[in-house]
Every structure is written in structure tokens, then in C-alpha cells.
Design brief:
Layout: H1 2-5, H2 39-50, E1 58-61, H3 68-83, E2 90-95, E3 105-110, H4 113-136, H5 139-169, E4 172-177, E5 180-187, E6 190-191, H6 194-199, H7 202-259, H8 266-279, H9 281-286, E7 315-318, E8 328-331, H10 336-340, E9 342-343, E10 346-348, E11 351-353, E12 359-360, H11 363-366, E13 371-375, H12 376-380, H13 385-395, E14 397-398, H14 403-406, E15 420-421, E16 425-430, H15 432-441, H16 445-448, E17 451-454, E18 458-460, H17 463-479, H18 487-501, E19 506-508, H19 511-527, H20 535-548, H21 551-561, E20 572-574, E21 576-585, E22 588-601, E23 606-609, H22 610-613, H23 619-636, E24 645-650, H24 663-675, E25 678-680, E26 683-685, E27 688-689, E28 695-696, H25 701-715, E29 722-726, H26 737-744, E30 749-753, H27 756-764, H28 782-802
Parallel strand pairs: 1-16, 1-17, 8-13, 13-16, 21-26, 23-24, 26-29, 29-30
Antiparallel strand pairs: 2-3, 2-7, 4-5, 5-6, 9-12, 10-11, 14-15, 18-19, 20-25, 21-22, 22-24, 27-28
Length: about 850
């Protein structure tokens, strides 16, 4: 029976012979450019990228290093190449809002015309300013203006002279001064001095005042006539100026109206700008003829100073003047500002000002009409970014808002630009758990991301994928100028791919880590000054990688060898077995043997896990203990209730223990304690059991086997040492070559079992026994001894209930002279 359970050396590792490859070196191959082994994910990507209905955005899931980003970019580029430039790709400009300057208007133009509009308005402004300067300083304009003013002066002078003659006839002198009209009595044809006026008798003073009153009315009438003439002259001059301005702007504006007649939003803006230009003629006349140099991004030449010509400035917000296809944007830092843009401000006279030229776009604007690719873990860690992204997809518009306002903080003067229509295909990459959480708790998620592309972390180990692995190595070597791999190196590389997923029939699809191994192998080949990378260099890279992270593992082995961690690798003991645990520290995992002990005594508490009672076990481990209780009841509680109290413990385990891979070892320990049968300590065991006693596969089988092997080697091989694993885990074995050598040399063995009975036989050398038709077990078998012990315990419990003396002596089922310990079983050959 034992020979049937031994795993032969050739099944401990799925090797690949270099001679089976169709090449001798990877420099003979074509570099891999397509993606391998992800048909489900690539079909989902093709569907999600090809359908343009609302909500059909793509959420890509898969482990890191599986090439999600590479595949996304590859398929998006193919889609763009296939479709060409999307009709949704446009230029976007922000322009001055004449009705409400705090709400700049967004203008959509065909790709490439945004830059043209900006340059045209700059040229129009310079042309208008130059023509205004020339026109208003020309001789013709000055002559017309002088004619209007002279005509007004002539009319005014006549009115003034008429009023002066009327005043002189009444004995008064009349003068029109800048400070106002002056009326002075005349004496002998000359103005009377104040002293002369005061020396007159009162009657004459009153008489002069009475004669002066009509002259005052005349002065008021004359002033009104002069003001009327001034208004007429001013209106005539304004009409002249307006006619000149209209003549200046008519040509340039008519040209632009004709040029942009097919762009729906530009003519309306040009019409408002024309009206503003006519109204701002005085401002334009006062400014220099040549506009100061203004950077193309709209920054002001003088820091903080308001731009008097702001209405003419165009903010080219999104420029697609040189597209090679629909835009593809990968946002590595998806903060609110990086996604949705920002509103810049400038300090001016103790405050902050902004205008439409200071609006800055985000990656959502740049990707408009194309594709935006984001990593979910980056997105969810940025405040407000995920909610903002969902709002953009739901409303199909991109709003440029201040992020501080989103969290209720007061901000300086803020613009509220008109939103831009969004036509963005979103591709978000994340972990599978993130997708499950979003689908479960985010009500909008299903409506916004209707396509899931799931990347697998493994692929079949067949001839095609092995060849693809070699082409992948070739591609890395070509791209990064590394040494090529010979056939033996490729074979070792493929074996590493199977070890990475712990499956002899699979290969790892985490090409990011495989890439690192290619680079590290080249390094060691360079140290040896080799022309090509060989299997020895790949093995060296793997061993060095393990060595760099094995400090804790070495300390654990040292503590075992020094007796600080109690692990026996020889002899036999009752109720004691070596279990196997996996310790993980980041990307480093290793197996550690742990002593599991079981003790039984009278009582009805059933099986008690000390680790559970001390809150050092997880839910899965607790489930394994309960399954063990079910197995014992199924085996021994069919004709009576079990009267049993038993405790099991992971000795010297002070951290949280989880998983059910120790349930097989715990079962063997309890049955050993009940049957009083010692178990071989040179054996370690791992496996999960169900209530029927079947052994189920577990994870981490390779590091568990290697961990116990290394401990045995450290303490010293005896030839009777080995590991018991589930038979269903044999296909997961990809053990190190040195362990296979130990097996070949007879120092170590690996056994595979299908049920508890086989494990018990390997550990004790005693048959487990089968149940007969009458419900009893074969004499001398473990099950019979356990059944007899449970009978005795049940009888003792009944007797103790009737006796006043609660002390009950139970004879063990094995009959042997008093004081003689049980003989340790010899492991069958």
C-alpha cells in the first residue's frame, strides 16, 4: 500500500527538455507583439471599445502584472487605426461672455480650426488697432473734425456776440469765462469797479440790479444755446468716429463672418464682438497701435494687471490640430485637476482675479472624442475623482469646477465656465475585488460600466503558449538590448512559469514578473561574460531572488535546529503530528512546520480548538475544526452519542492562524490520542478534509514541502522523513531540483493520499480499518481502537453519573504490561 502512495521523482516537477523546442536560441524567433492566452478579456475589450452606446464603458479586472495596461493600449490603438479620426474629435475654445464675464462660453470647432480662430482674432485685433491709429491721425479725419468743431464755434461765437450787444445796450458788460458767465455794470463805457458800485446811492444800486435781471435771463438762454451747439458738435464728432470705426472693422469682420459661417457658434460670438468693438472705440484709440506681446496661452504681459482687450482673447482649450487618430490618454495621476482641469488665478491689489484665458484643461478634455484609461486604485485614492468621473459619464458633459467648492470650502473669485459635451470612452483597470465591491455597493456602477474584461493570471501549458513564452523572451531581449536565451534557458524559464502558478499544466500570465526574470537572468549572464543566457543563469536569478527575501525563513529554521521551536523530525509520539503552515511577508512566502498536539479526556465538550478559544484562529480554520467534529460523529456516533472532550493546539503559534489545510493533521492527531497509537515525527502532513474523510487539495503545496525538507536537512536526514500531501495536489508540484535529488537519493519522500485512512496508515504503520456490515471495525485497526476507547469513555461517563466517587479509571484499549510505553510504529517501506 505504501508504494502506491509514494509520488515518484518524475511527478514532483514538470520539466521541459530543451531538445523538444523548435529552436536553439531566441534570436531565431520573431518577437511577440500580440497578447497571449487572454481570449475572453480581449473579446470583451473589442466589444466594449467597438460599441458607442451610452454606458458601455469598460472595467478591466485581473491581477497586477498580467499585462492589462499593455493589452488595453494595444487594442485601443487597433481600434483607432481601424476607425480613423472620430467625428467627435473637435477643438474647443473658451471665449469672453459679453453678457456675463464670470461664465465664459465654450465654442466647439472642427479639429484644427481652434488654432486658426485664435490667430485670426489676434490678427483682427492688431489690424483694427493699427487702422484706428492711422485713421484717427489722418489729415482727412482731422479736417472733418476741425470743420465740425469750427462750425460749432462759429455758431457759438455769433450767439455770444449777440448776447454781449444786448447786454451793452442795457448798460452791462458780458463775458463768458471757463468758470461761467460774468455780468458787470458799465460806467462811461468801461466796467464799473466794485468800489464804484458800492459808492453809488442805494436807489441807483437797486435800479442797476433791476436792469440786470433780464440780462441774467439772456445769459441763461445763451448758455442753453451754447450747450445745444456743443451737443450737436459732439454727436457729429461721435458719428464721424463711429463711421470711421465701422469702416475700419467692416472688412475684417465680414471676412471672418464668411470664413466661419459654417461653424454654428462662431458667427454669434463675432456679432457680439463687433458690437463690443464699436462701443469700445475710445478704448482702442487710447491704447498703443501695436498690441503688446501676449503668449499664446493667454497669460498677461503685466502680472496681475487686467487685460483691456480680454474680449478679443481666445483660449484654445483643446487643440486637435495635428491628430493621428482619436486621442488615447493614459492618466497616471487622476486628481480632480488633472482629470477635469483647473481655474488659475492671479494676485491683483490684494485679491485674486481670473478670466477665461486662465482656464486649463484636464485629461478628460484631452480625451474627448477618444479614450481615457485610468487605474482604479489611483482613481479611488484621489478625493472626489471617482464621483466626478461618474457624473461626467452620466451627464455626458465635462464641467470645469473648483475642487475646493466640491467639499464646501470658500474659494476666491471663481468662474463658472460653460460645460463641454463629453464623448469619452472610459477604460478603468482594477482588481477583481474592486469590481465586486463596486457592483455590490455602487448603485450607478452597472449603468456606467456595462462591459467587464477579466484577465486571467494563468494560461495552458501547451506547445503554442510555450512558443509564445519564447517569443516573449525574444521581444524583451530585442527591446531592451539584452542577451538572447538559449534553449536550456527557455526551458528553465517555462518551468518557472509553471512554478509561479503552482500547476504542472499551466503557465503564469503575469508577464510583468516574467519580464523581471529575463532582465535578472541577463545580469548574471553578464557577470559570467556569456554570449547567451543559459539555464544556469536563469536558475541563478531565481535562487538570488529567493535568497534576497529568505532572511526570516533562515531565522525560523535556525530556531528549529537550536530547539527553540519544538519540531521533531524523528521518533514517534501519541497525539502529536507535524503540520505545515505558510508564512507570507509581502511577495515572500515560505513553509514552516508546526507541531500540532491533541489531548482527549472525559467530558462532553467535543473538540475544542485552543487557538479558537484564544481568538488566534480565522473563520476558515474554525470551519475545519467543525468539519472534523462532523467526521468523528459520522464514523463513531452512529449508535451512541459521543462522550468526548478533546483539545487541539498549534504549539508555539502566536499569530493568527487561518485556513483549513491543517484539518487532516488535526484529525490524525485526535485519532492517535484516542487510539493511543504513536505517529511518526519524521513525517509532516498537510491537507483539508470533508465530513466523509476525503482529503481535499490545498494551496502553497510547494513551499510547504520545501519548508519541511529544509528543516530535515538542517537537522539531519534519517531516511524515514517525508511529507504527506493530498493526491489532488500532485499536479501542483513544481519542487526545487535539490528536493528531487533528495528524493532520488532516498533521503526524503513525498506521499499523496486520498483519504484519512491512507494518511493514518502512513503515519502509524497500522491499518485504519473498514467498517463491516454490522457497524463494527476490524480488530486491531485504528478505527476499532478509537471505537473501543469511545465506548469506554461513554461507559465511564455513565458510571460517573451514578457513582458518588467521580474518579473513574479507564483502561486503555491496548493491552500491554503496566509501565511499558507503546511501541513506535515503523514506517512501511
Amino acid at each position: 500500500m505504501t508504494d502506491d502512495l509514494v509520488v515518484p521523482p518524475e511527478r514532483l516537477r514538470a520539466t521541459l527538455e530543451p531538445v523538444s523546442l523548435s529552436f536553439k536560441c531566441t534570436d531565431e524567433l520573431t518577437p511577440l507583439v500580440e497578447f497571449v492566452g487572454q481570449d475572453r478579456a480581449t473579446r470583451a475589450l473589442e466589444f466594449g471599445l467597438g460599441i458607442h452606446s451610452p454606458g458601455y464603458n469598460v472595467f478591466v479586472t485581473g491581477m497586477t502584472g498580467t499585462g492589462k495596461t499593455t493589452a488595453i493600449l494595444d487594442y485601443v490603438r487597433r481600434q483607432v487605426k481601424r476607425e480613423g479620426l472620430s467625428t467627435d474629435v473637435s477643438d474647443w475654445c473658451y471665449v469672453f461672455n459679453f453678457e456675463n464675464p464670470d461664465q465664459p462660453n465654450a465654442i466647439r470647432l472642427p479639429a484644427g480650426q481652434g488654432r486658426t480662430l485664435r490667430d485670426d482674432l489676434e490678427q483682427l485685433l492688431n489690424s483694427v488697432r493699427a487702422n484706428i491709429s492711422n485713421s484717427f491721425s489722418s489729415d482727412g479725419y482731422m479736417a472733418q473734425r476741425r470743420e465740425l468743431t469750427d462750425s460749432g464755434q462759429t455758431k457759438g461765437q455769433a450767439i455770444i456776440e449777440k448776447a454781449q450787444h444786448a447786454a451793452a445796450d442795457a448798460g452791462f458788460g458780458l463775458a463768458f469765462m471757463p468758470s461761467g458767465p460774468s455780468i458787470v455794470p458799465l460806467k462811461e463805457g468801461r466796467p464799473m469797479t466794485p468800489a464804484e458800485f458800492t459808492s453809488l446811492p442805494l436807489e441807483e444800486q437797486h435800479a442797476l440790479s433791476e436792469r440786470q435781471r433780464p440780462i441774467g435771463d439772456l445769459v441763461e438762454e445763451t448758455g442753453e444755446q451754447l450747450r445745444s451747439i456743443e451737443r450737436e458738435v459732439g454727436a457729429a464728432v461721435q458719428k464721424l468716429d463711429r463711421d470711421v470705426i465701422e469702416a475700419i472693422v467692416r472688412g475684417p469682420f465680414d471676412t471672418l463672418d464668411k470664413k466661419y459661417s459654417g461653424v454654428s457658434e462662431v458667427p454669434s460670438f463675432l456679432s457680439r464682438l463687433r458690437a463690443y468693438t464699436l462701443a469700445a472705440a475710445d478704448l482702442l484709440r487710447q491704447l498703443p497701435a501695436v498690441a503688446p506681446a501676449v503668449p499664446m496661452d493667454g497669460a498677461m504681459p503685466l502680472p496681475g494687471a487686467p487685460d483691456p482687450l480680454l474680449a478679443f482673447r481666445v483660449n484654445l482649450f483643446v487643440d486637435n490640430s495635428n491628430p493621428s487618430g482619436s486621442p488615447i490618454i493614459v492618466e497616471a495621476n487622476p486628481t480632480w485637476a488633472n482629470l477635469f482641469g483647473r481655474v488659475d488665478r492671479r494676485a491683483y491689489m490684494g485679491t485674486y482675479l481670473s478670466d477665461h484665458t486662465m482656464l486649463k484643461p484636464g485629461s478628460a478634455h484631452a480625451a474627448n472624442g477618444g479614450y481615457l484609461i485610468i487605474n482604479f486604485s489611483d482613481l479611488i485614492s484621489r478625493p472626489g475623482a471617482w464621483e466626478g468621473l461618474k457624473r461626467m459619464i452620466r451627464t455626458r458633459e465635462i464641467r470645469l469646477e473648483d475642487p475646493m467648492e466640491q467639499i464646501g470650502l470658500l474659494t476666491p473669485q471663481t468662474l463658472r465656465p460653460e460645460p463641454i459635451a463629453a464623448e469619452v470612452k472610459m477604460v478603468v483597470a482594477g482588481e477583481a475585488l474592486a469590481y465586486v465591491m463596486l457592483a455590490t455597493y455602487d448603485e450607478e456602477f452597472w449603468e456606467l460600466f456595462k462591459v467587464k474584461a477579466d484577465f486571467d493570471y494563468e494560461l495552458a501549458r501547451d506547445a503554442d503558449n510555450i512558443h509564445a513564452y519564447a517569443r516573449f523572451v525574444c521581444a524583451v531581449c530585442e527591446r531592451e538590448k539584452l542577451r538572447h536565451f538559449d534553449g536550456s534557458a527557455v526551458a528553465r524559464f517555462v518551468e518557472y512559469g509553471s512554478r509561479a502558478v503552482e500547476d504542472q499544466e499551466k503557465l503564469s500570465a503575469r508577464f510583468g514578473r516574467l519580464h523581471d526574470l529575463v532582465v535578472e537572468s541577463d545580469y548574471w549572464a553578464g557577470r559570467d561574460e556569456a554570449k547567451y543566457v543559459s539555464a544556469a543563469h536563469v536558475s541563478r536569478a531565481i535562487d538570488e531572488r529567493v535568497y534576497r527575501g529568505s532572511l526570516i525563513e533562515e531565522h525560523v529554521r535556525e530556531m528549529i535546529s537550536r530547539g527553540m521551536l519544538l519540531i521533531s523530525t524523528e521518533g514517534a509520539a501519541v497525539g502529536q503530528v507535524n503540520g505545515l503552515a505558510v508564512l507570507s511577508f509581502g511577495d515572500v512566502s515560505f513553509g514552516r512546520p508546526m507541531r500540532i498536539t491533541a489531548r482527549t479526556y472525559l467530558g462532553q465538550r467535543g473538540i475544542v480548538s485552543i487557538d479558537r478559544e484564544s481568538q488566534l484562529s480565522g473563520k476558515i480554520h474554525d470551519k475545519g475544526v467543525l468539519i472534523l467534529t462532523g467526521y468523528l460523529g459520522w464514523c463513531y456516533g452512529q449508535d451512541r452519542p459521543l462522550s468526548l472532550s478533546a483539545t487541539i493546539s498549534f504549539e508555539q503559534g502566536y499569530d493568527l492562524i487561518d485556513g483549513d489545510s491543517a484539518s487532516l493533521a488535526e484529525t490524525c492527531a485526535i485519532l492517535s490520542a484516542l487510539a493511543d497509537i504513536p505517529l511518526q515525527q519524521g513525517m509532516a502532513i498537510t491537507g483539508s478534509v470533508n465530513q466523509k474523510g476525503e482529503v481535499q487539495p490545498i494551496g502553497g503545496v510547494n513551499v510547504k514541502v520545501e519548508g519541511f525538507h529544509d528543516v530535515c536537512r538542517e537537522i539531519g536526514f534519517t531516511g524515514d522523513q517525508g511529507v504527506i500531501i493530498p493526491a489532488r495536489n500532485v499536479k501542483n508540484l513544481m519542487l526545487r531540483p535539490d528536493i528531487i535529488e533528495s528524493v532520488r537519493d532516498g533521503n526524503f519522500r513525498v506521499f499523496a493520499v486520498n483519504n484519512i485512512d491512507e494518511a493514518l496508515y502512513l503515519l502509524s504503520g497500522v491499518e485504519a480499518g473498514k467498517r463491516s456490515a454490522d457497524g463494527t471495525y476490524e480488530p486491531g485497526t485504528i478505527h476499532q481502537l478509537v471505537d473501543a476507547r469511545l465506548d469506554a469513555m461513554a461507559g465511564a461517563m455513565r458510571e460517573s453519573g451514578r457513582s458518588t466517587d467521580r474518579t473513574v479509571i479507564i483502561n486503555p484499549p491496548e493491552q500491554r504490561p503496566a509501565g511499558q510505553p507503546p511501541k513506535p510504529p515503523k514506517l512501511p517501506d
